[in-house]
Write a structure and sequence with these properties.
single chain, about 170 residues, alpha+beta, Thiol Ester Dehydrase, Chain A, 6 strands
Amino acid sequence: MTGPDASRALGDASAAARLGGGSLEDVPPEVLVAGLALPLHDYLGLQLIGLRPVVVELTLSERTRSLAGSLHGGAGATLVDVAGNVAVATSGAVDVTRCTLLTGRLEIEYRAVPEGDRVRARAEVIEFARRRARVECVVTDTRRRRIATAVVTTLVLPGGGFAEAVC
């Protein structure tokens, strides 16, 4: 979703428009820190490495591999979940200081065993309607081979957020 109409933004339109800027520096640090600094994300070693489009990286380790040595399905789903929600949070269509984002649905199709020591999820908002956003994610390995595709549906709920105000 590029260049959203600020009048369609949920919450404070000017805050949402600022979030839709072109680089990580445009996004308030508290948004990224609070959204990514969860114990599970730390445990898995998730790292935000790009914003336009959103790219989240996961290093393959004993924490993120299955018994067979491949990417654990739960770790892959968490990677996609985080990338999808960061894409919505930084799209410019939502003022995350006044709204709560919640994953309503996550569909992932694994296609191959990753090669190398890391995987990346690239996420882009493909639809925004009322209080729901759909995000397309592509997961690639170190050799840039597509190992999974996913669609994340994010619910945008009034209240909560960083200001705990109504959306």
